[in-house]
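Tutorial handout. Part one gives the primary structure; part two gives the three-dimensional structure as tokens.
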Amino acid sequence: MSESRVPVAESNARERESRFARLFSSEVFRQREHQTLGERARHAYRQLQEVHRGLGSGKAIAQDLPSLFALFEWSAMLAPELFLVLSGHFNLTLNALLSLGRGRTDLEDYLRELDSGDSVGVFLLTELGYGSTVFSLETEAEYDHDRRGFWLTTPRDAALKFMPNVGAEDVPKLVVIAARLKVGGEDQGVFPFILRLRGKDGGLHRGVRVVPQPERPLYAMDNAMIGFDRVWLSFRDWLPGDAGSINEQGAFHSDYGKRERFRRTVEMLQTGRVALACGTVASARASLSIALSYARQRRVAVPDRGTAAMLDCWNVQHDLLVGLARIHACTLFGRFVQGLFSQGDEEREALSLLAMLLKPYISKSAFDVIQMCRERCGAQGMFGVNRIPEYLGTCQAVMTAEGENQVLQLTAARRLVMGEHLRTPAGGTDAVRTEGSSLFAERARRLRTRIAQGLEAPLGPGEDRFERWNAWSTEAIALAEAQGEALALECLQVALRAKVPSSEGFRTASAVLRVFVADGLRRHAGWFQSEGLLGAEEARRLDVELREACVELLPHVPRVLESFALPEALREAPIAAPEGYVEAWARRFR
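Part two.
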């Protein structure tokens, strides 16, 4: 298919939305209520083929980041099983070949298969004994100079690759494997290699063993453990990019240390982190829309009034409106980072720091809000046909995938403490402020200063650097959370500043900002008081302030939901059906 069907640069958001609406209207994306998790995992690959048929060239999709991000978000809402395989295929395999193999004609056959969707790409990074500790990976690729290639080996059980989606026996798979390069017996660090794991006939490459894992109760994916027994890789299967080389005499050379070599060969992880995290926020937007639709319809008994809509009850109204404000902020934060990645005008280090702050903050926020929606919908929230429980499973997967959230937070916090530059939405200019909003940035600043001072203090008797950092780890996680929240707030402020003060849009944005700030101050009131930043009387008024802010936001809910531009297909959920949930369920009974 022609690459022109997916332009490298897509400037018209409405056209992009129309393309994805057409794609996801296909029968293959409709919910299948009675499939097992294993059947759904297998069905995801049929959906991936439909993506290639509908959008065209995989290379064009992978390189047009606005369209790639949109694909993740639409899939998160309408095809959760597809959502979980997208990153391995587009970001981690296809992009690895495009970036690390730039200018290499010897990889064209692999690229053609991924470009057309004839083979599915999967990234094999973590091992049974090592998750996010990637510098300790044990899978070995030993260079054989006489044959000019590599022997791929799993030296012991802890090195079994755990747990990529390679269990389906009839799906051709091309995999990128992170393995420790050995040249002349010397360890040169972890590099990526490509391998045709399964051919079109479903057969495994010689020397590879795949053992499917039991189904997970939370999400559909054909996960497995993989081991290698002297699997032969040709020299072209090594993907070093510019991080290393082996000359004709068999000598290894690199201008970088081992950690920098690995970092330079896995930059595509950052794009995947952003895409996956923003996908969870898309599913949270969908959950809020579904839950709000139900809350307007569901009648509950109330004293003196007989019945009232569930949304009229303060406990429900509070939860849904606070969730709406939080997810709106996460959406804007995600759009800000997506924009920087799409423009490519930032240094890689700056982008990676933002991705490490973004993913934990917005994916955990999305999970919290989706879980709240499930609970507020009661028993209705437990049915997959109402979509919300499916979103919980994908959120759980994303919080671990491509960097476990707390590990990313610890890494980001260390970089912040070391004084690394952080790109902010306001770009250093004054943003619109609401009462108390400056305290969010101050919280992050004080945590960063306190940790830096603690780390710089002289070591005690017998204390080493690890023990010192370990002692500050909980504060470091709090710093990353606080910095993420401050960035999300700044995105709301920037959005408000762009509105005409007398417009309805300004009033909506102002109400969202007010709820977000009131909720954040209330959640962290104890910390702010202990720091002398919030007085006792101010703290006591936070409950009243939040209630008043929610009352202000309530009439603007339809406008916020409209800004989410959610797919019409979400209304197929019985509790979001246009005719009402009672009629939607009763129709199944008749």
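Part three, for discussion. Confidence is low (pLDDT under 50) at residues 1-10. The first helix runs from residue 13 to 23.
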